[in-house]
Design brief:
Blueprint (H helix, E strand, L loop, with lengths): L12 E2 L5 E3 L11 E6 L2 E6 L5 E5 L6 H9 L4 H28 L17 E3 L5 H9 L10 E3 L10 E8 L2 E9 L7 E4 L17 E5 L2 H7 L2 E2 L7 H8 L4 E4 L5 H13 L2 E3 L9 H8 L1 H10 L1 E2 L2 H16 L1
Parallel strand pairs: 11-12, 11-13, 13-14
Antiparallel strand pairs: 1-2, 2-3, 3-4, 4-5, 6-7, 7-8, 8-9, 9-10, 14-15
Helix pairs in contact: 4-7, 6-9, 7-8
Length: 322
């Protein structure tokens, strides 16, 4: 199979999460805002300057956008055609077995469309954007998180200063949320697809646990996933279970969190309600106690007994009333 990496510019940078960034060949990018993420079956591409996206998966025909990207990377036309033929041959040989496997896979119906319409003027957040950079550090977001972007005020469409966080799945951008920085409501403006769980792409194969939380910054600062509201849909539950690890729900310590606890009990998942004075959610705890201490308290407060979970819920409800 054609190795796209040998066609990338010499000036490039690889992040710990697998993205390789370089100047996008499809626009006037000079700040390394294009990125490829290879995997065993192909690759995904996204540019945070011109918002161009493309992907290739072995067994599928090359899309127009993937062809155009390869052409701009100066891949010979005959090599592009050979890649397409090899992909189709793989499909004909392995397609029947693959289809049978998909039929038996509980995730067969979980699909997210790639998202092309990204807010204008996107820029990767670096120390060169000190206000945005410091905001992320203050929220406990790891410096190597690759998909953070800052949107500069264009005075027309985006008149409120904010930070945009892309939603990714299998390395493809499938939505985004914008966190406003001016203190006014609404705090977030989002474009999300049904069943999506934020942070799935950041989970590592060697991890034995997954922490399920409400907010995006809760997930970013702890390495967990976020359902982005106070319940878990059936599709989200199926996606989280696909990680095949111990699941622990860490609700916000407010009235909405009580609803999430009920849903966790219904799903048979563990629940953790640590004793965090003056902390409403995991991100508050990370900012006050640090990431390691927060994770330790979460695991120490983890309960699998339904009776004990209900007792902790009653204690939380009493605390909220006082």
């Amino acid at each position: 199979m054609l190795d796209i990496l040998i066609y990338l510019p010499a000036k490039r940078k690889q992040t710990p999460s697998g993205w390789i960034s370089f100047n996008c060949p499809l626009c006037d990018d000079r700040r390394g805002r294009g990125g490829v993420r290879p995997n065993e079956q192909g690759w995904s591409y996204h540019c945070f300057n011109c918002t161009y996206t493309a992907s290739f998966v072995l067994g599928r025909a090359l899309s127009f956008k993937a062809r155009r990207l390869l052409q701009q990377l100066h891949v010979a036309e005959q090599d592009i055609e050979y890649l397409n033929l090899e992909s189709m041959r793989h499909r004909s040989v392995y397609g029947i077995l693959d289809d049978r496997a998909r039929t038996s896979n509980q995730l067969a119906d979980i699909r997210f469309d790639e998202f092309d319409d990204f807010p204008p003027g996107s820029e990767l957040i670096t120390p060169e954007l000190p206000k945005h950079w410091q905001y992320l550090r203050d929220r406990g977001v790891p410096e190597d998180f690759p998909a953070m972007t800052a949107i500069r005020n264009d005075g027309v469409h985006w008149v409120r200063e904010h930070i945009t966080i892309p939603f990714t799945y299998d390395g493809c951008v499938v939505g985004w949320t914008a966190r406003m920085l001016d203190g006014r409501a609404p705090k977030f403006i989002s474009h999300s697809q049904p069943g999506y769980v934020f942070g799935i792409d950041q989970q590592r194969p060697e991890w034995k646990h997954v922490l399920v939380m409400e907010g995006i910054f809760d997930a970013l600062s702890t390495g967990g996933v976020a359902v982005m509201h106070s319940t878990v849909s059936d599709a989200q539950a199926r996606l989280i279970r696909s990680l095949d690890r111990d699941i622990t729900v860490v609700p916000d310590q407010d009235r909405a969190g009580l609803e999430l606890i009920d849903r966790a009990v219904e799903l048979g998942w563990a629940v953790s309600i640590p004793d965090w004075p003056d902390c409403k959610d995991p991100n508050d705890a990370v900012r006050k106690y640090g990431r390691l201490a927060t994770l330790l308290t979460i695991m120490q407060a983890r309960e699998t007994s339904r009776i004990k979970i209900e007792l902790r819920k009653k204690q939380l409800a009493k605390k909220l009333r006082s």
